[in-house]
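Tutorial handout. Part one gives the primary structure; part two gives the three-dimensional structure as tokens.
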Amino acid sequence: MLRLLLSSALMTVALTAAPANADETGVAVFAGGCFWCVESDFDHVKGVTETISGYIGGKLDNPTYRSHVAGGDREAVEIKYDPAVVSYADLLKTFFRTVNPTDDGGQFCDRGHSYTTAVYALNDEQAALAEAAKAEAEKTLGQAVVTEIASPAKFWPAEEYHQDFYTKSPVRYNYYRRACGRDKSVKSLWGDEADFGVVK
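Part two.
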């Protein structure tokens, strides 16, 4: 009888716990230069469910593509993901290996603060994992990593024409990415560890 009661209780716990895990969505915010490219890279990571290009960290409300540089915003991407499929630590590893985290002046052909790299940690756990990933990247590269581990800040979605730009305007996007030297530079820095997302 006791075994039956315990079995029933465990089944109840399992059934009530399942929906919470199934509905759980993780959120990461990374700044890695041109948000078109960051969005493209992470859309190809298994477990990522949505990416949104936007602006973060500036002084103005409702920044736009025209105003974000003057306002001090970085281009960034808000990434929603399924933690049962991909972890935040895994996303960090991919992030560092899709950018040049040793460049404090921007990324590739895009220069200035708005194109510098940063991880916007949304809580203490993310901050600790981000610091660990940064230290690991420094050790792997054998040089200083300048990517900022930043505090949470208001994320402002970019204009609609920027969302999924790589699918809306593939010719223009691919020309830009090649001309900017993004993939070539990342490959030169990271070698075989360069990671432009895992195709779903």
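Part three, for discussion. The domain at 24-193 is CATH 3.30.1060.10 (Peptide Methionine Sulfoxide Reductase; Chain A). Helices lie at 2-23, 35-43, 68-71, 88-96, 124-141, 165-168, 170-180, 182-190.
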